[in-house]
Amino acid sequence: MASDRRPKGALEQAVLAHLWSSGTACTPAEVRDATSADLAYTTVLTILSRLHAKGLVSREPRGRGHAYRPVLMSPALTVTRILELLAHSSSRADALADLAAQLDEADRGALRAALAEAPDP
Fold it and tell me: 89: helix, coil or strand?
């Protein structure tokens, strides 16, 4: 029996995607209107509150509530999450090797170029 549930984290990703693309702080109502008409206002507010608690969005007073904006932009958030996962890996070298093995050729080329341009630590 197929589940009608969204994948874990899908709503947070949709909310973050809207905040990244908006370029300005958004209220929960603005986020709801931009992401999905079938979400309740309280659901969007809960997602934004959880993102705020995780430190992924900041909030500022607007009217009787708050407007939210992302703390990190999408590429920076991706890097942060990868580094957090590597920090908890039993072998960073093995994890990086497995990652590289799963990349397609375009991503491998992009990674090679980024490594060539990266400053020495």
Answer: coil
pTM: 0.62
- Residue among 62, 63, 68, 35 nearest 49 (CA): 68
Judge whether 70 and 23 are in contact, CB under 8 Å. Answer: no
Domain positions in the chain are: 10-70, 74-117
Q: How many CB atoms lie within 10 A of CB 25?
A: 17
Backbone angles phi, psi at 60, to 5 degrees: -135, 145
Are the C-beta atoms of 45 and 28 separated by less than 8 Å?
yes
Give 39-43 contacts, CB < 8 A, sequence gap 24+. 39/11, 43/11
What digits encode the pLDDT tens for the residues 58-96? Answer: 999 999 999 999 998 778 778 888 898 999 999 999 999
Compute CA 59 distance to the chain's CA centroid, rounded to the nearest angstrom: 16
Judge: domain 10-70, CATH 3.40.50.10140: no
Phi, psi of 2 (to 5 degrees): -75, 145
Q: Which pair of tokens denotes residue 94?
A: 């093995």
